[in-house]
Batch of 4 targets.
Target 1
Amino acid sequence: MKRSVESTFVIRPSDKRTNCAVEQRLPRILAMENEEARDDKERVIVLLNETAKAFQLQVAALQEELSRATSSIAQKDIKLQDLTQHVVDLENESLEQRKTNQGLNSQLQVLQNTLAEVESQLQSADAEFEEMRATYEAKEAEFDKKSAESRTLTTQIDGLRIEIDRLNVIIHRQEKALQTKAENVPKMADACLSARDFSEKQLISLRDDALQAKSKELSLVTTANDTLRAQLDAFEAEMENLQRTLTSKDMELYRSAKRIDKLERHVEKLEAAVKRADGQELAMELSTKQNTQLLQCLQAEEAKNEALRAKVDALTQDLVHVNEQKSQIRSDAAVVEIDVELKTKSLERQSQTLATSLEKLQKERERMRDELASVRAKARLEVEAIQDELVQRRSKQYELTLKLHETESLLHSSQSRKEILEEELQATQERMKDLERLYMEAKRWKEDMSSAFEGLKIEHSQLQRTHKTEAKKFDVERASLQEQLKEMERFVKAQKMEMEQREEKKKLAKEEVEKLEKKIQELETRIHGLVAEANNETKRRVGVEMELTIAHGQLSQFQAQSNDMLAGLYAKHKKLQEAKEAVQQQLQQLEYEYKREQQGKSQLLRHCYQDSQPKGTLSSCWLSDADLPILVRFVQGLDRALEKLDFGSNRITDQGVKYLLQILKPMMVSMVNLQENYISPQGVRQLAAGLEEFGCIVNVHEGRVEATDEAGKSILTVDISDNKDASSLVYKPQMPKPAKIKKPKSVTKPDPLKDIYGVNLVQVLMEKSKEPVSNQGGKYQTPSTLSPRTQSLPKL
């Protein structure tokens, strides 16, 4: 590749002296750039060696921790096996003691059953005697009650006879009074009436007919009003029934919703119970299979560690073969990228399948919700229909009320007409008052007399009937009481006979009881002996139970200790997993930084050997804080100012701000791009403070630092937006120490054409010379194996 000077330094043909000076400086500048490029390449190789050594140290530490964990787990497994064997022995001893105790318990149960049978016989005899005594006492109480009732009936009969005599006396007095009144009544005679009296009678009859008609109309209106009121009451009752039905339906809906909620809760509880049962079963299985699971976990961890070792070996092999197979690395990177894309596509497909399944579940859930909503909507429609019916009935009620108002208005008009007619009839009424009063008094007197006479007759007949019926009842009750007395006498005699028989039976029972008592005493003596034996056996049993409790306590202690040990092992295992995850994250970060180092190296080579790149563009080169001093010297050695310095997508942190200030101090740059680096807000403030010390007016806004002079003209702009957190970085870069390069004896003079035409990229990175050097063993050695940097790499 040919490198042109015109792209980096623009030569103006205005001055011949300047052209001569530039031509004189060209070889020195090219030599300096070649030396800087070589230094950078050597630094990159040293950094890769250091990363490989760090990986080896971390892998060795992880292997030591795994070996310690496996040894501790093996010791604990041995302890657990001893404990389980001891528990099995204790359980066998407890089973033997339980068998002996069961035999003794069976003998005790036989003796207790015999005693229970004897006691049940005695209790049955006592119960029969008490039942006989209770029946005799109940019959005596019934006899006393019947005698008291007969006495009360006799007293009632005497009182009724006295009342009958008094009523007969009253009836005789009233008959005499009626006869005297009938004799004192004056005799009435018919008289001839005049034409005036006849006309007045006709008017009175017409008035009476009109009044009767009005009264009929009023009665009809009142009946109509009553019917309307009854209809209104029925309508209100129906409305209340409808409201009750509505409330009942609402309550049913509410109850159905509650039932649904309860069913859902019940389902959840059942699921929780199933989960608990599964958890209990798993716990029981885990208690028996902990050792195997721990071994499986250790095997899995060993497999993972072997995989990590394989990864580390692969990385070390990659580091060894970097010098020989750069083209292969590129092809492998392409293959890896294709694999990653395929894996990402497969993961996307899996995520799509999961998303579809989740969508199906959500659709089913929405369908259930829609069904519930439809049920509620149906209920609401029914309620609305019922409400419409209520509205219609209310409208009918309003129509009926309007009709009532119309009838009331008609009533008011009829009442007004009635008042007018009453005013017309007042005169005639005043005339007829006296006659009507006399007539009504006579009529009332006659009606009162007839009603009183009829009432007396009815009362007399009723009294006679009651007297006859009571006399009949008394005779019947008297006969029944006499029969009952005879039966009671017979019953008492029979009871006396039964009592005599019972006394004889009691005597026999006493004799049998005495015999049974003798047998019981004999049994008691036997029982005392058995109880003494049972006490001895219980003492032995208590001793065995004490030993069992002690054994159970020891067992629980051993179980607690084993649980504590398992918990400690689990905690250690968890810590190991966390440390492993942290190491994996650091390894991923280191891989990412390694890839960025490789990309930065290739980007630096591209910037160095491509003509199209302007000077000052160092984006995506993965420059660190340790690389900035070289750039300080580069900027300080410039003859003219640069328009822009592009440091974007590098790993510059707050520690490199001081070098950035040294770069910006001569004010040779007007624009600096520091996007996508690792500078914190504190570093931005530090940069702004440094620019203020240079005598500039600084304005900081959203990661952009603008420096202006006193006139307000912008001198410098530094873009520090979109920066990242520096704590995520793992590797800390350092300046590589310059290695002492031993020149071989057969090295010829450097070819001056290399500085002009350039060399191959692989030879620039990995080779120092193209001439073969003879080895002591006679084998051919490549330049990569002769370099001290490759000899310093760790041998894996």
Target 2
Amino acid sequence: MKIFKYMKIYILLVTFILFINLLQIPVYSKDLNEKKILVIVSSENYIQLTDGNKLISWQNSMLSSISDVFIKNKENIHIDFQYLDCKHNSKEFLDEVYNLFKIKYANIKYDAIITIDDLNNVAFNFMMDYGENLFPNTPVVFSGISKFDSSLQKQHPQFTGIAKNTDIKSTLDAALKLHPQTKQIFVITDKDTYGIANRKIIEDLIPHYKNKVKFLFSEENNIYKLKTQIDNLPKDTIIYFSPGIKDNNNDNSISYKGASDILFKDAKVPIYSREGLKSNKYIVGGMVTYADTYGTEVGNLTLKVLNGKKPSDIDITRDNAHKYEFNYPQLKKFNIDTNSLPKNSVILNAPIKNNYLYKNIIIKISIMIIIFIIIMETFVIIISIYRRKLAEKSLSDNENLLRTFINSTPDIIYLKDFRNNFLEINDAALKILSINRKNCKNINSHKSNNLSDYTRNLLTKFNINDKRAWDTENIYRYEEIIPDTVNRANKIYDTLRVPLFDEDGNPKFMMLIGRDITEHKQNEKNEKLIKELKYYDELRSNFFSNISHELKTPLNLIFSALQFIELKNNKDKNTALEKYTGIMKQNCYRLLRIIDNLIDISKIDSGNFFTHFENKDIVYIVESIVMSVVDYVESKGIDIVFDTDVEEKIMAFDLDAMERIILNLLSNAIKFTPSGGNIEVNLHDRGESIVISIKDTGIGIPKDKQCSIFKKFIQVDKSLSRNREGSGIGLSLVSELVLLHRGTIEVESAPNKGSEFKITLPVGVLPEKENVKKHNELDKDYNIQRIKIEFSDIYDY
């Protein structure tokens, strides 16, 4: 009952998978001549195969060869694949599969069915039992079955095929011939469908070897126990190995090669198999069926059926796709003479003898020389024929080549005779004249009634300049202005006229070549304009440099006077005087800030602003800048907080520029955040970049103004309130300084909800030799002065 329960679960699982397949909508070819073939493959790995995994190599190679046959014969054939689980082939299971296939293939008509088995006959038997109901009157080409009763063809006239040589008896016969002292054959199989089929074949062969050898069978699934059995075999034993071993310890299939390495590496008796030598270097040999050759035979047989031959008229044969294969190192190990091998045997891994090698080299070189001589002679003949044909067609080809050339160029080209008749004119010239070739013939016939005034005037102009060229009797170059009727503008053409004379000096031909140089002339004007712009840019730079000096000189005098007044006032303690000197100093700082910003923005625009990058801890620098303004910010009734998700981040940046960026953004946050508000400065590490965020709870920025705040001389708040003064340069300078660090700056803001400026900078570190340390740390006095300058447009009065 328990087994039946599991069988029901398995059938339901397979039914579900097949039902999913049935949901796929079939696509029908629009080609009415296309033929459709269904290939049914029996495999123990049905579930995996339907999930899209690759077929096992033997079946895959066979299917590939069948497809190649159709392709080489240029047949328009569509192939569908269907897989059958050969491990579960009970009547109940197959009935369920039949019912599902009946639904799936109800609306599909196939021209032929191909079944592929490997000694298990599951696909073949399925078609024998259900084929006529599923695919009425459809030919079936079977393959891979070991036995076929020819009398069945009378009952199933739609069946034909190529039975597969089991190769097992041939392998055993060859092994016994090469080892005449053999007393027993140790057969290794497993308990799956393939192993059971192999064992059944060998058991049927036992009567052929009665009183000659004894057969021992092993279905041991534990590979290490099987290894012990092999090690204990007597020397008069040979092993027949059928792959598919599993290790019961972990229930995992061990590959053919892996099992061979464990079992046979130290084997003292010879091993034979029909599975091929490429994946098992310990096998002596055996009869091997080549899947590609077998597939080709099946493909050719299918073509016969598709071409109209009745399956009942085709004799069922066995495949010719098998040969003996032997492994040379194993032959030497067991002292087997290669001359005793079956005729036409293939010996793998055999060393190449020197005399054989030299003989092959000489033969190959001789063949290559002969081929080279033939190729050279053929080449000489081809060249001779080519030259002959080229000579015969030279005039025609040259004419076509010339016409193609002159029509492909945008330059205007024409050739006239001395009577002003056009002998040749290219498409560009026709376009300029606004005529076609038919009109050109009319011009030569002096029939110009259908020509426009524009064309007549232009032809007259050309004729006048042609006459000048005739008169000079030399090359005549002239810049002609020709109206462009399409773009309604004048174009300038550099024309070159070449008068040609005969031997007596009489005029014969006039050739004109004209090139449009309008753009070139415009570029000359633009080049002059660029030079003027560079000159004025240089003047501007010099102006800002001079104005900086001229403005800072009186500022320094004012600072000195204020400092003197402050020293004198330290004794008198005049509150009013202290207040007004403070106002004066703050406005001096503000003027100094405006001057510095103007100069720096001018330097950046002209490409003369230089940064000094050095490796520093960005976390420490930003935190130090924020901490330096805490007292000032809190004096305004505003809370300021610095937070980071990383304690240290070494990267290359300009210390002065970074300080100006942070202080400028903090200045804006303080200006536009009322008392009781908050300012948050956060630094986030993103691995290859860092993000510095300065967020406030101020008045915010309208959405329509956010795109312009980084432009020069733009102020969002244009009110006259003194605590919000500004030049409109600060954020523009911040944006430029961020760009010099290859970074980006963006803003998120809403009115009355505050603003957040995010600076993203790439993390890079300078090599030690390039890391010229300019600052060890922030200079305290310098930093205080910088804060006063950057915060100079924040007023308390």
Target 3
Amino acid sequence: MTVPAPSSRPSSVETDKQNLAPPTASRLLHGVVLRPDRLLWDGQHYTGPTPVEVHADGARHVPGVVAVVIRQSFIGVVASQPGQAQHAKSQIHVQWSRPVSDTPKSLPGAPITQSARSYQYQTDTQAASWAIALFEEATLKVWCRTTQPESLRHEIGALLSLTPEQIQILPNGQYPTESYDAAVDAALLCIHAPNRAVKVAQPAHPATLIRITVDGDKNSLTEKLSQYPARRPSVAALLCGFTHTSPATAVQNNDAYGTPIRLTFENPTTSISTYPSEQVGAAQIFARESFFDEVCKTQKLDPVQARLNQLTHDLTGRNLIESVASRAQWHNRPSKTGTGQGFAYGHVIDNEQDPPKQIWSAWVAEVSVDKEGLVDITRLTVGHSTEELNSRQATPEIESSLRQFAQGLLKPPDSFDQWGNDKEKPDFQVARPNIDIVPQQNENAVSTHIAWNEKARWPAAAAIANAIHDATGVRLRDTPFDSRQLQQALAQKPTPPAYKKWTYGLLGGIAATAAGLVVSAMPWRSAIAPVAVDTRIYSEEAINRGRLVAIAGDCMVCHTAQDGLENTGGRALETPFGVVYSTNITPDPETGIGSWSYEAFERAMREGIHRDGRHLYPVFPYTAFAKISDTDMQSLYAYLMTQPAIKHTPPKTELAFPYNARPLMAGWNTLFHENARFEPDPTKTTLWNRGAYLVQGAGHCAACHTPRNALGAEKSGEKNYLAGGFADGWEAPPLNELSKAPIAWTEASLYDYLRTGFSSLHGVASGPMAPVVEGLAQLPESDVRAIAHYLSSLNPGSSESEPAALTAAKLEETSRNNSAVMTMPGESLFEGACAVCHDAREGPPLFGSRPSLALNTNLHSDHPDNVIQVLMHGIADPTQLGLGDMPGFKDSLNNQQMKDLLEYMRARFAPEKAPWQGLDEKIETIRNQTVR
């Protein structure tokens, strides 16, 4: 028995206004189906496992079971409740036969196989879906969501011996999830429960793998290909033993050039899942066009010309290919290393339409591949032709759709510079691929552009795969294309003899090092000419990624003056050598960076050289930014260049001699700066490397938290790394084992502090750290966790035997019972100004949180700076509203009172620490400080 082709019916979904709503829950029965663990078919018949024995008596005796349905390999249960149906399903025991062989029988007219290739086409994860079917009064109603209602109607009719007029396909309101398979399951089950509606819920499934093996003679391009359907029937139809006839679906027309194929559909982890049936056609074209390109490469044939030579009787296809090849400059292909072009062609007959329509499409993809195997699609030239005369879709919409579809065929690497949910968005690249749609005129319409058809996208995967092979010599046969797989393949390619490689590498390294030292030591650098930047090339993904890089790098914090406009510069940054004012980094061409090329921008970020050749001061942390990956750097440039351009000239930095002699910075760079990108530690986890990348690179934590030498450079050595420093008059406490925190920072407490600005075991973020926390709140949670994970690994004390809560309780108890401080002059000051918020003896907190001073890192530090800053200026703008603010006492306490209060707090809350020295000078300095 066969599933016939659908007849031509004008409606796509029934519009009968009677009883359109799905049945209510009280009328529903629930159905589940039992699938074999593997689904195989050869394009017409089901060839997978079949039941040898079925023991279902246990299921029939489960309370609530209405029916157990067994029809060849289709097995299902109908019950009153979903749980009853699932339990009954578990009571069905099936012995499945194994397929005789995964190798198909010879196809009619197929030549003897001399070579074979397997291609794997992976579809997107399918969301959960559902359908309801009700059979009453000789009419079957099916509530579902499908793009193929006519095929569904005729398939169900063939399965149940119903006429199309007896079947109503009604919408279930679930968009855009496809529920074709669930609808057929529900229809088959509801026949066994007449006058009762049966609902079948199909859970979300992992992606389905479509493996296609091409058997053919690689020395011949003229083999006859048997027609295979480009869209599969329902799983239920296949399991019921129905033969699928190709006229029922869109098929690829390969009369002139194809090779025999077999198709295998399977899910590697669980039972067979559904997948967009349209993907079958895309998978076939991917396999056939990739194989065709392989054969052409083997025979040293040009694939475009080889295809033209075969399409002797297809004028439309020939004209289309010639137009696309000409527009893509196929015969003038670039010879630049790491770049390549790929061609693919598709011809589809869409029998879903009446009369059937033909669709032609040709693609030329251009890619660039870096040494890490990362692929960028730089250009797509697409041509299509069809017999449809519908209104033409807007070109920008088509371009956007094609761009997203093509980029979705690339799988990003699992690396340290992935942001947030990049793994879930494999379509990232900095620049938008240039989409060039070749206009085609339908020969039957004098001046009407032809309609776009989604099946014209199907050659995309093969075109990209062929381009990657052209660029690298590596053939990728699985989608999405994995850069790690490509990188591994590139690493296995033949290399020069070891002694030559060593010699050339040594000489090259010496030359590069010498050249780098010479360039970095030059007191004057050449200017880079201004340019007009075309920001239209940047994708939304790149701009958003750049925004995250900017947030991680605190660009807006340093380049925005108090009460100033964002990124217009003018913030005063205090250094031991004087005050440096930040610059305008908006894309204003006169006062900002609007005329900076990417080359100029990258040089400034990695080398500290202005576009005009001036050396920048290292208060701009280019020493850290040099570690940023190329992709992140390009994304940051894209983001900054697409922000509003604001004309504003910030104050000029004027340092005293000799610090105003910028050429001297050349020597400083030679001594203290290494222009090197971050290198992940292969012995560490991805999470650790991600945290290290953010801390060492964009986050530039060492700029504040590492001590500096007399020349203002970060002190080198492992013990000095993140061992504590100063910024804007505040202490940046040590983050390594030198931390003075009374309770060691753990990964959890670091995460809380960085994410919210508050840790109950340590205190509240304030000073320069407050805007950093505000920025971190905008980063993906996974990135903040990575930072916390990395920083916690630097402090061995984070693994203590005593629980932190017990240590905290002991410290609190000690501070409450410290009678030695009660006679100190600062006691009355503390009671009047601080106790209401900070003394646990005073009852519950009245305003915001109550940071414990006994646990506060600042009070246990060797330096009183942060405590003085907070007492002087307070915390007027907490990182979160719930934390509450704190008033400043600069105008209400004189220097002596401030000193008395500091001595009291140190003695009470950090009694094991020595008294602070030099308080008089510190208090006076911070009181007179103009920058904070």
Target 4
Amino acid sequence: MPRFFRRFGRSAFMSVLAAALVAAPLSAAPTALAAEPPGVTRAYEVEPVGGVPSGCTTPAGKGAAVVSSERGANASARSLLVNDTSTTSHTVITCPLDPAAGTSLSFAAFPVSVPNGFLMSLLGRWQGGASGVIYHLNVQSNGAIQWYDGTRWSPLAPAGTVHVGAWNTFRIDGGALAAQVSVNGTAVGTAKRAGTAAVLDLTGYQFASNGTAPTGDKVFFDDVRTTAGRGYETEAADAVPTGCSTPAGKAAGVVSTLRANTGSRSLRLNDRATDKQTVITCPVVPQRGIDLKLAVYPVALAQGFQISLLGHMEGFADRRLVFHIAVGADGSLRWYDGNFWTTVSPPGVVRIGAWNQLAVRVAADEEEAQVSVNGVRQLAGGPIGMRRVTDLTAFEVSSNGTAPTGDEVFVDDVSALPAPDVPAPGAVEVGPAVTVDSVTNDLLQMPHSAVNTGAEAIVTYGAHPDVTASNGTRIATSSDQGASWRPQPSRNPMPNEQSYMLSKLRNGDLLAISYHTFMRTGNRSADVESTVSHDGGQTWSAIRVGAMTTPVNMKPISSTTSRPGRTMGGFVLIHSVVEDPDGTLYQSGYGYYDGDARYRQLLLRSTDGGLNWTTQSTIAYSATVNGEGFCEAAVARTADGSLLAVMRTGSYLQMYQVRSTDNGKTWTAPAPLKANGVAMAGVYPSLVLLPDNRLLLYYGRPGQSLAISEDGNGTSWSPPTYVDYRNSANGSLIQTGPTTLLAFGDRGANWSLNKPTTSTIWSRTITVPPR
């Protein structure tokens, strides 16, 4: 028994302690601080050791509780430490919550030593507005629990209820009249209010040591969580909700009594300014991953509204937008990668003039945000730019622009739950990124081509800026299906070219064809350089110089050149070849005929092993198609034996496809690609036909995605599965097994937003479900 207790006796001690605790500044949480939204599990893992946790405070004259790396619950490394080493003051921490009529506070506590015990309190406001301790609990040195009614302490649970020297789990379910207390999964008692007035709301919680002398109370707290949705019922009408803020230069979202999902109040964003957005920002406890849920009622959407997550990115100290999602005026969903908005759902997913239940879920790896509307998953989107997201610290809801006005949205019942495990959508499995090659303060990017020799996988990628006049390639191999990689500079067939395309021929030979061609006199032919390996890429032949010929004059594809003294040819050659049983090869190329206003997509044909090429046909050309023109075509045999070409038209623009049933002599009119009624935008597509006759389409921008044609002919495409988000969108795909593949990408090109200082080429194993 503590000396202080023995000296005064039980009744005297309890009277003194009660008076001291009531007089101490164990008060309601300051409303100006960032509140901990309902549902967040605060594990302190991203908070600095030795500091008071973000958003929490130490009352004046009290000792500080700080983040500690000495112990953590559930295999975590950090926790909150209340360590009483002072004979003159408590050790106290106060943390605000979003005001709510009721809340459930759960946490883990590890009492190392408690000669006095420790305190747990829910703070709030009484009817009439006075702030104070609403529910006040005392864990004694023997593990018993008491509760305080404003005048005296009463027993709640017997000795031994709380274990000293072990982690205990607590839950305090506080309402307007009482709080039920559970310890280690068992309800142990009910505490009454620490006063006689009616409770208006609960606004915070507090942990503290249990007295000033003697010292020695040492308790760790971890995994703190509340689970009550923010309904704005106790918030002042026409005011910004407590703890939230309006960014400088923006119009405010305020509490409204006009409409509510539950109760009578909600948050209203009513855009009536032509020169500013209406925006509200609400902090969350710094965390990895989130499950943000909110009810939204769009009254009218001239442009739409946005939901954003804010946090930090690797290498940046400032808080910034890290995930950015929008609902369009037509009720469709879009996401933003830092350069462009991509629509990923059909119109009408979010209903106008009705309450919708939205959920934005980000897993702990913070690579993807998934959005569900009314219980149905509708969107997957990535972060902004190339940097890794390190934490999430706030969410933001806003109107979708400045002019025109007219966006009016009500928001209610907001919660921010943790999301440590967000299942990947669909049945396609995407493995973790494996580093193929990396370099710091230099460039590696765009793994344009890869091949499976049977003994190993080979991938080639650029080591230069993405401009015509630059050169330099690298090559790497894997003999374990992409589990590990080894750069192979001595085996690189074209180290000084801009890039080259790899193919495995029917006889087992490997063919490498240079991406760039160089004009010959007369502009109807151009040099094509290639090399062949007869031993799986261990060695290569001397560079062969053949020709591609066209029926009309070509126009140089660029005014600059990668080879000083030579003019660029009219076309560049991309992707692996298609080979017929008789050895005829077909090669994709795009560029310009003389007079072309946009790119022209060609199919070339070779009957001498890829040395010389003639023009088989124009796959597609239009002087008026939106963007750059038809280009970067992936060409493959489909399940029915026809040739399918999938083409880019521009960055973030819709792809098109065409079909030939006569070996590429003629083609159907270009048809826009769609999945589930949504345009499929992308660049640098790749096609792979599986042994079971399913056709796979791998493409980029934004990110890298995989779509499946179940009939093997490209008649229809599944909604895409995102393989990776943070990349230049120029990658490649090869088959490694009946249902397994290796996908390749990078961590951004030289022009990418927020590109890391370390350039990386990666591979991921993709497994598609069997039929």
